[in-house]
Design brief:
The chain is α/β, with parallel strands linked by helices. The protein has 14 helices and eight strands. This is Malonyl CoA-acyl carrier protein transacylase.
Length: 300
């Protein structure tokens, strides 16, 4: 990930990767550019890699005169969003992301978990199924992502998630799929690491946002550095309210929704749930050029 940007925009991008290698004592640039699927499957590597690539892509967008008026990030994406908003220095955010990934991977080693996406049922119904499954099985499972009105992700123990997927199919879900992730993110299993991660958050300065930024756990604006700090602690075991975040962005009458970094999941969600606002992914150089042209036209 990010290899084409490092090649095309070396002066802007490679400094981030070189610095990150030194900060983490990890060959992150090599892993991002040449890492095997197994290496990149380690959440302690994936998380800083995605974070760093998102920052690098954003730097190139700024070179083209594209700057956000409001920022929001899905799960890990809240960290680069806070960097853009001036709340966190990118170096501090990188260290936090690395530690976050390590702690989450540790949870999965102790209590193997799973995540699954459920489509075609209202989010409220999925929440009820999680509660029913937890009571009947004694396993931990809960909603992790409210992505869209009928697209929800659940997270928890392997048995807990399996119970919900069986129940969801029986309730009429149109699609149920296990996600390829390194840990049961945004589940109650992550409560175990909140206190330890909070100590790392306390060791880092958080500034007042210079542009509006929306928190995952509440889908509301963050007004102070301390609010941002508490949001990052809370989001470890709280669901991502992305559907509500999109509703807020639409109400704010934004010109476009730009997904920065690897993948296009959020763009696809936006086109389904907020189709009145142009949405575009910028994860490759080709996509960047297309997005710059579209955004320039929108602002004209």
């Amino acid at each position: 990930m990010g290899k084409d940007f490092a090649r095309e925009y070396a002066e802007s991008v490679r400094a981030y990767y070189a610095s990150a290698d030194e900060i983490l004592g990890l060959p992150l640039s090599r892993l991002c550019f040449e890492g095997s699927e197994e290496e990149l499957g380690d959440t302690a590597v994936t998380q800083p890699g995605v974070f760093l690539t998102s920052l690098a892509v954003s730097a190139v967008l700024r070179e083209h005169g594209i700057r956000p008026g409001v920022v929001a990030g899905h799960s890990l994406g809240e960290y680069p969003a806070l960097v853009h908003a001036g709340v966190l220095a990118w170096e501090d955010a990188l260290r936090l992301v690395r530690r976050r990934g390590e702690l989450m991977a540790g949870v999965n080693r102790r209590t193997p978990g799973r995540m699954a996406a459920v489509l075609g049922l209202p989010a409220e119904r999925i929440r009820d199924l999680c509660e029913e499954s937890s009571r009947s099985t004694g396993e931990s499972v809960a909603v992790a992502n409210y992505n869209a009105p009928t697209q929800t992700v659940v997270s928890g123990t392997v048995a807990g998630v399996e119970a919900v997927t069986v129940a969801a199919r029986a309730a009429g879900a149109t699609h149920v799929a296990q996600l390829k992730v390194g840990a049961p993110f945004h589940s109650l299993l992550m409560k175990d690491i909140e206190e330890e991660f909070a100590a790392h958050l306390e060791a880092v300065p958080f500034a007042t946002p210079v542009i509006p930024v929306i928190a995952n756990a509440t889908a509301t604006y963050v007004h102070t550095g301390e609010e941002a700090r508490q949001s990052l602690r809370r989001q470890l075991s709280s669901p991502v309210h992305w559907s509500q975040t999109l509703e807020l962005l639409v109400k704010e009458d934004v010109d476009a929704l730009v997904e920065v970094g690897p993948g296009r999941v959020l763009t696809n969600i936006s086109r389904g749930s907020a189709s009145q606002v142009p949405a575009m992914a910028v994860g490759t150089v080709k996509q960047l050029r297309q997005a710059v042209a579209r955004l320039t036209a929108v602002r004209a």
